[in-house]
Amino acid sequence: MKRIPASRASSGTSQVERAYASIKAAIVAGRHPPGSPLSEAALADEYDMSRTPIREGLSRLWQEQYLDRVPGRGYFVARITVQAITDTFEVRRLLEGAAAAKAAELATALEIQQMRVLSGVRLAETDYRDAEAANTRFHLAIASAARNRLAVELTERCLAQVDRFLSLGMAPAPLQDSAFEAHVAIAEAIASRDGASARRLMEEHLDRGSAGMREALLRGEVAIGVSR
User: Fold this and answer.
1) What are the tens digits of pLDDT across the range 99-109?
2) Domains of the chain, CATH where assigned
3) Dist. CA 8–CA 125, nearest whole Å
């Protein structure tokens, strides 16, 4: 087997990562709407790279359920459905409820201070993108304090999906109002080393978020893409 030089292998890997990250960011931001087709050739031209890293990036995004794959037709941006929202929040409930309980046991004083600072951001009074970034930092701070790298990675993936739901037209203000109060309560439960309360508060917070997004989808406030 012909050995690929390390520099070339590294370059190929970085191209795949760039393709994956660029396409994912465009999907999350809504630049590729749900239901729209993704052409390898067009994306290769847009990102100035060959079709091989584009193809591998698309395959990864399909595995992560950002895309649907139709035999003979290629990839399409996955549509937002009630089931997709439910699945995402069920995973978050399991992961983040457990992480909040573990963080109450393991978080350092500095980590607790950071959570309190992040929980004090009134999301409804902040620009949408800044609010979403603050929300992400809060949830990842808890996952990180639980000392589980896989939980951090999976939580980050779920949060990216939630960001995609919100970027498609749902009015986030009502959820942001309740999120502020929930974040403060969760941070204080962790600071008090009350794992049971931290878990319960996190689960209740995520249940409200899931219900709010499902209702918004059913009211037509979130774009769901076109039939194909």
Assistant:
1) 999 999 999 99
2) 6-77 (1.10.10.10), 82-218 (1.20.120.530)
3) 48
